[in-house]
Amino acid sequence: MVTRKDVAALAGVSVATVSNVFLGKVAVSKDAEAKVREAARYLKYVPNHTARSLSLGRSNHIGIAMNESTNPFHMEIIKYIEAYACMEGFLVTVFDMAGSLKNSTSFIERGNLDALINFTTVKFYDEFFDILQSQNTVMVNFGLDKGPSFGHEDADAMIECMKKLASFGHKSVGYISTLGRAILPLDERSRTFMEKRKGMGFSEDDDLIECDAGSAFKSSECGYKGMTALMKRHPELTAVFVMNDLAAIGAIRALKDMGYDCPKDVSVVGCDDIELSKLHIPSISTFGFDKARYGTKMAEKTIECILQKDRGIGFDFKVKSQAFFRESVSVCRNMSKR
């Protein structure tokens, strides 16, 4: 096994100089650094991550907790987090929390992470937070009282989509959520729909809102099951908002299987603007935000907190969503018959 001592001997420098090149703690001349890196390449030397972590007093390891690894939405953000983190010398690990919470959190607790970014709706136990705090882990998106918070403002984009449907004559408009009914008002998209539907001329019948009992199903399944249930109860439905694009794809499939056409019979609006929404047939009307800006800023602030040994409490960053109208929305079928 090649060691720092071997690299130092070939480069003609001290072992301390080799350490400084790879740890970046002390400035090294460009000539010495070039010699060290050339020797390391020749010997195929790979710095020991554990030794580096002990020397730096941090692991250079960022964890990301997420609920649904099959949904592209968070992965489209994570790729920008990882790109920035990698550039800064940090490793990123994604933890899928869809299984046993106890098993998932035990892996995180043993990981000695510098930071943990939360993309879940999971209710974590207090002991978990105590452990992270004792390890000086920066906690992102666990609440402003615990660390930095990142979010997106969807209300204006949601209202714009509602106005579009109203302009097309839709009145019997449903809503499919991947969340349970009890926490529906906590979601900005859902709350905006319920508060603004009367002013848009939409039905206020709460039976037009279909909710999942939690995370029992994947988003696509929630969309499929929710659409099927809604159309059986309300065949007069002419449009539906679906909580995310993957669920919208499930809803459109359900309409096809029941003999309906989207958008001729039922218009569908999703949320998140995932890449697949542009390629699906029909392409999905939706709203979303700049994921590159969002993910890069999240990584930048997280690493800043790690390096400055700052928990980032109170930092609140938000991006605004915008609407994208595509093929899945059309004139209400009742108007087209006139």
Can you walk through the features of this model?
This protein is an alpha/beta fold and 338 residues long. It folds into three domains: 53 residues, 434 Repressor (Amino-terminal Domain) (Orthogonal Bundle), CATH 1.10.260.40; 122 residues, Rossmann fold (3-Layer(aba) Sandwich), CATH 3.40.50; 150 residues, 3-Layer(aba) Sandwich (Rossmann fold), CATH 3.40.50. The protein has 14 helices and twelve strands. It has a four-stranded parallel sheet, with helices on one face. Helix 1 crosses helix 2, helix 5 crosses helix 13 and helix 10 packs across helix 11. The relative contact order is 0.13. The mean pLDDT is 90.
Helix fraction bin? 40-55%
Give the structural class: alpha/beta
Q: List low-pLDDT spans.
A: none
Average pLDDT: 90
Q: What separation lies between the terminal Cα atoms?
A: 80 Å
CATH topology of the largest domain: Rossmann fold
Strand percentage lies at 15-25%
Sheet with the most strands: spatial strand order: 2-1-3-4
- Sheet bearing the most strands, described? 4 strands, parallel
Question: Please, how many domains?
Answer: 3
Shape: elongated
Report the CATH architecture of the largest domain.
3-Layer(aba) Sandwich
